[in-house]
Amino acid sequence: MNDRIALPVAVIGAGPVGLAAAAHMLERGLRPVVFEAGATVAANLESFRHVRLFSPWRYNVDRAARRLLESAGWQPPPDEELPTAGEIVDRYLAPLAALPPIAAALQLSSRVESIARDGFDKLKSRGRDEAPFVLRVRTASGVREHRAWAVLDATGTWATPNPLGANGLPALGEREHADRIAYGMPDILGAQRARYAGRRVVVAGAGHSAAGNLLALAKLAQTEPGTRIVWTIRGHDFARIFGGGENDGLAARGALGARLRALVGEGRLEVRADFKAEAIRDEGGPLAIEGRAPDGSRVRIDAVDEIIVSTGCRPDLGLSSEIRVRLDPWLESTEALAPLIDPNEHSCGTVRPHGHRELAHPEARFYALGAKSYGRAPNFLLATGYEQARSVAAALAGDLASADDVQLELPQTGVCSTQFDEAAGACCAKPETPVEAPIAASSCCGGPPKSRADACCVRDEVAKDEGKSGCGCGAEPKPSGKVIEASCC
Length: 489
Ligand SMILES: Cc1cc2nc3c(=O)[nH]c(=O)nc-3n(C[C@H](O)[C@H](O)[C@H](O)COP(=O)(O)OP(=O)(O)OC[C@H]3O[C@@H](n4cnc5c(N)ncnc54)[C@H](O)[C@@H]3O)c2cc1C
Known about the structure:
five-stranded parallel beta sheet; binds flavin-adenine dinucleotide; 17% strand; globular; 2 domains
């Protein structure tokens, strides 16, 4: 019997995308084995179960998983309702994991520590592609090796947050003061309430997690006198975090930015923009954060009781260090995916459809899926991961026609901040939006193209009609891909 038939496809991580991958594999007649580090599925979502997502149920349930669940009598939650992360676990992922074919594939409390090609170190090429993989898996009873025909790394990035230091390294003193620093989204209004009530809290970051933390702290401050909030960001591009408001395809995401803008306008936050943190010092009780302003001068935030670092996450690349992966040098996604998701170029939140080809590595039959596939890029959405899982499962099953027919329906953010400018023939002028200025009333690129198949948005279309090279929104459209609702801008 050959390895393709005899060995399972290993899925690492039983988050929403890992479980979706298992469902697609089962539909394709492939045999998944899912290793999950946590004692239950979706351990990362569990850690922020109090957070309400900004995408409604209709974007949060994978289609193959839905088919499996519905065949067992599952009642889907209302399409337009916004679940919390905890509800995603309770109402969708836990029932999915309990279905007999998924449950049989699941190995909980099983952390994959490394992946290799069985009998081949990284240097050895001849015969490599035909060899199975070997995974080293740690459980309570020790480390065991498992062989697999293909490997899908769906481990996410949530457990490896970016540090406070603006240069990407932990700020000096960050590790020493770990007891006063939280990463991501602590439960400010619930389990962690006493920790933040009546304190001066610094939130660092310019993404949705930072916005959620600031809003929670502002609510806390209404009932807990003495709670003071400082918001620090490394740059001054408030447009990106305030977002597209009512133009956002996800109303809740738009509202998040709009509410934050209102808090700033009302003076309920102390805003420290252009603050590049370098060190945390102990001031004999309170902490001080030292940093630099753009002109190189030293700046400080004094009298800090608690710090919440919401500066994004990065992938743990240790897992794949013994196999052949080719990554974009700074995003740490695949090279093919990078131009589609690079936040230096886009904050559109909408990406071109992509599947097994964009996710492929030199190591045959190894893919990173889900949040991990985006490396350090912050805009990952579940719907993207589900389509990745569908395409990769089809490719592994040998159905290339289906694998290449990538379709992705994503809501637009309604805000776009590329670095390209009008003079350079680009479509998305960077919105220079000071705190008080209104956000542009329409999607910056005018929405999807009207007629040209090679354009990503209206302004790209106009530029190309005028003989210009286009807007620079990203890679050329893939011949196999279809954007159903949203274009890249
Ligand atoms: C606060 C927040 C809000 C978000 N809101 C939305 C939203 O509204 N809409 C949306 O579409 N997306 C949203 N996202 C983005 C995205 O949907 C989530 O990050 C989602 O959890 C990604 O799913 P995943 O399966 O790729 O990874 P994860 O959910 O991170 O799952 C990874 C799994 O792998 C396991 N694991 C990790 N390492 C190992 C290992 N070595 N061995 C075995 N198992 C391992 C983990 O325990 C975990 O269960 C949000 C993200 C965050 C952080």
